[in-house]
Specification:
The protein has about 475 residues and is α+β, with helices and mostly antiparallel strands. The protein has 17 helices and 23 strands. About 35% of the residues lie in helices and about 25% in strands. The strands form six sheets. A seven-stranded mixed sheet has the order 8-7-18-19-20-17-21. The protein starts with a strand and ends with a strand. The relative contact order is 0.20.
């Protein structure tokens, strides 16, 4: 009997991870990727003759899924923590140290917060006088923390930290979905800052918070794809899926001028694409998927000659910018400082990058590359005194790249999965569901694979149904 056939639609890291996990089971796997490359938002490129990440560059190490995947596909020896995690906030017209002992910007160490001078004296005084605030099952993190610790904590700390992850608005993002570890601390009574300080102390003994890969995270998709192929999976680029329909025996998939039959399907594409493919057979799930909103952002990567930076040396890992300060950029990462492998591979070059744009504020993406570079350089000149001229640059636009997690998001995800469970032999995974970080995405891919494996037992298809 032929092996059951599972088709994975989407070749980002979610789809590739699902294929890798499925290929270890007794199923035949096909991955269909619409574009000409695998990896999604994990993307490497060359800027100024230096290989560098043009998408995500680090992964949370204290959640194990992504690190375990890297080890599974043979990249364990290339895992490498940042050389420095000394970040800053560019706020109130100065570069100020990011205070330690905080949880996604919510402070735990008020003495460190005072020493950083991130807040005005009035804002600091308000933070020292916590007020009780109802939270219930969930709340927008910005509004809740503003009620409890003051608006300035949100504007100058929570907003830039959340913005670095979601490119969203703190007054809309769900505590339960985005910062679940904060929810029990908020509910337990007593001082929230003291609870965060205790949590931070315990977490500080757990090793590095983040990990990267020598050569960049852009190398991970290729390794995962190679692992899946070595275990029998077929991976195809240039194969957009035009239609997906349920049949009595499984699924029919129209792609690249032919039809494939599958016993089960993994949808590892953004929510709007998943909605379009499910509209005929799962209209309720499609309606929920269409309601997921996305933020767009642009990354500007700049290459300098180190000799040109002698008069304006750059220290630390970079800085975040609170939206309240109304700058063009929302963050800058000093990549050559942050990643030792990058400094070792290109000792005479210095790479950094800036990011622009956030949810419903994506006009910057319509500017041409030269203007985005100019705006980045202008802000860098003001923030850190950088006057050197880059010898190369790259602009990467991630349109609709980051799903938003408002209050009610997790309930929506549960409804989507309930609708699909009723349909049978189909699962979803990716950044729109269980978290936008790489470990969460990999964990969701494993969940999808495990969900489908028993559903394919004893079933089979004949593969290609038509030419």
């Amino acid at each position: 009997m032929a092996k059951p056939h599972v088709v994975v639609i989407g070749g980002g890291i979610a789809g590739l991870a699902a294929a890798a996990f499925l290929s270890d089971a007794a199923v035949r796997v096909t991955v269909l990727e619409a574009s000409t490359r695998f990896g999604g938002k994990l993307r490497g490129g060359e800027v100024g003759g230096v290989r560098v990440d043009l998408g995500a560059e680090s992964m949370l190490a204290r959640r194990p899924e992504a690190v375990e995947l890297a080890r599974l596909v043979g990249l364990g020896e290339r895992l490498e923590p940042p050389t420095t995690a000394k970040a800053a906030l560019w706020t109130r017209d100065a570069l100020r140290p990011l205070p330690g002992g905080q949880l996604m910007g919510v402070p735990g160490d008020l003495d460190a917060l005072a020493a950083s001078e991130v807040l005005t004296p009035e804002g600091l005084e308000r933070a020292r006088h916590e007020r009780p605030a109802e939270i219930g099952e969930d709340a927008p993190i910005g509004r809740y923390i503003a009620d409890r610790l003051g608006r300035e904590v949100v504007d100058r700390l929570v907003e830039p930290l959340l913005g670095g992850v979601y490119a969203g608005h703190a007054d809309e993002i769900s505590i339960r979905a985005a910062v679940p570890q904060l929810l029990p601390l908020a509910r337990q009574g007593g001082s929230l800052t003291a609870a965060i300080r205790a949590l931070s102390t315990r977490a500080g003994a757990g090793g590095p918070v983040f990990q990267g890969l020598r050569g960049g995270l852009g190398t991970l998709p290729g390794a995962v794809a190679a692992h899946a192929r070595a275990h029998g999976a077929e991976l195809l680029t240039g194969h957009p899926v035009d239609a997906l329909r349920r049949t009595p025996d499984g699924w029919r998939i129209a792609t690249a001028g032919r039809e494939l039959a599958a016993d089960a399907v993994v949808l590892a594409v953004p929510a709007p694409q998943a909605a379009a493919l499910l509209a005929a057979d799962a209209p309720a799930a499609a309606a929920e998927l269409r309601a997921v909103e996305y933020a767009s952002m642009a990354l500007v990567t700049l290459a300098f000659r180190r000799a040109d930076l002698a008069d304006s040396p750059l220290t630390g890992s970079g800085f975040l910018v609170p939206p309240v300060d109304r700058r063009a950029i929302k963050a800058s990462t000093f990549s050559s400082n942050k990643w030792g492998w990058l400094e070792r591979s290109a000792p005479d070059a210095f790479l950094l990058r800036t990011s622009l744009g956030r949810h419903r504020e994506d006009a910057a993406l319509d500017l041409d590359d030269a203007e985005l570079v100019a705006r980045s350089l202008a802000d860098l000149r003001t923030a850190v005194g950088l006057r050197a001229v880059p010898y190369d640059h790259a602009v990467t636009r991630w349109r609709a790249g980051l799903p938003q997690y408002p209050v009610g998001h997790l309930d929506r995800v549960a409804r989507i999965r309930a609708h699909l469970d009723a349909l049978g032999a189909v699962a979803v995974c990716g950044a729109a569901y269980d978290g936008v970080g790489i470990p969460a995405v990999v964990g969701g891919a494993r969940r999808a694979a495990e969900h489908l494996t028993p559903r394919t037992s004893g079933t089979r298809t004949e593969g290609t149904m038509g030419a």
